[in-house]
Amino acid sequence: MRTLVVLVLATALVMVLAPVFKIVPVAWAQERKVEPSWLHRDVAELHESHIDLTTGSCHYTPIFGEGDAQATLPKAIARFGEMVVEAHEKCGTVSYPQQEEIYFVLKGRGSLNSGDSTQSLAEDDFTYVAPGAPHSIGNSGDQPLRLVIATVKIAASVSIAAPENPVVANLRELKEQQVGGHPASVMYKLMIGPRKTARDRINATYAVADFFLMDFAPGGTNFPHHHEVAEEIYLVLDGEGQMAAGGGMDGVEGLHPAKAGDAYYFRQNCTVGFYNQNKPDAKAHILALRVYVPLPKELD
């Protein structure tokens, strides 16, 4: 009882003297906000934002990273969002000396212009633009061109090679395959991966670990798991099910509804997974990006 009285009197004294001596009260530990381990966005509810490549006819909707309300949470992903280019228009030309970029065409047709190279883009095309390469996206069709864009930071300590002309590929070129550690109820198309490997269709990245598509069978799952040195984004293209995000001791308790247009961001070491509906013909496709997060120079 005496301790409680002393605490009350001390608090009252601080409140009285604070304006006089400009004392800044220390916030109680309970009031400190902790950064979330995962984020959810419904793309249909998001709004456009102006960035370096946007124009009056080239629009960008941020999902994670630059332009998002919690832009600082992703550590290696600079931005992840959706671009829309109006018919017969183009975006601004950009170049990043220490960032790499990925484009995936959701709908429409257009072109990727990089240096002296111009390559056609069509639905389900994907491409990688190396750091230091000036590039822009144009719409050569009569309908809007919709793309997913991902811009990824490369650590300053990484040596960057001279950029090569971008390679454009299409999902139809890839065979679905099972990935080790995951069940056969989800099949993968491995689109873009590290330059020192030969697993993906385009092997060219510095910080991107994988850019891939998952195809879930009815009742399929990729099992809840986590990545110790990478952050990840899932964008549901079609279908619906339950997303494992965060979770409890078994990694499955944190299940959240996921439908087409839902996007989830997962920090490193956060539980991530997906459970498709267990109904006949219940297919689901998820576009995924996994990026290595550099370790801090000074450990906690």
How is this structure best described in words?
The chain is mainly β. The protein has one helix and 19 strands. The strands form four sheets. Strands 1-17-14-19-13-11-12 form a seven-stranded mixed beta sheet, with no helix packed on it. It has a six-stranded antiparallel beta sheet with strand order 2-3-9-4-7-10, with no helix packed on it. A hairpin with an 8-residue loop joins β15 and β16. The longest helix has 20 residues. The radius of gyration is 23 Å and the shape is globular. The N terminus is likely disordered.
Characteristics:
Jelly Rolls, mainly beta, disordered N terminus, 6-stranded antiparallel beta sheet, 7-stranded mixed beta sheet, globular, 7% helix, 300 residues, single chain
Task: Write a compact overview of the structure shown.
This protein is mainly beta.
Q: What layout of secondary structure does this protein have?
A:
Layout: H1 2-21, E1 38-42, E2 58-65, E3 77-85, E4 99-107, E5 110-114, E6 117-121, E7 125-129, E8 135-139, E9 145-153, E10 168-170, E11 186-194, E12 202-205, E13 208-216, E14 230-238, E15 240-246, E16 255-259, E17 262-266, E18 271-276, E19 284-292
Parallel strand pairs: 11-12
Antiparallel strand pairs: 1-17, 2-3, 3-9, 4-7, 4-9, 5-6, 5-8, 7-10, 11-13, 13-19, 14-17, 14-19, 15-16, 15-18
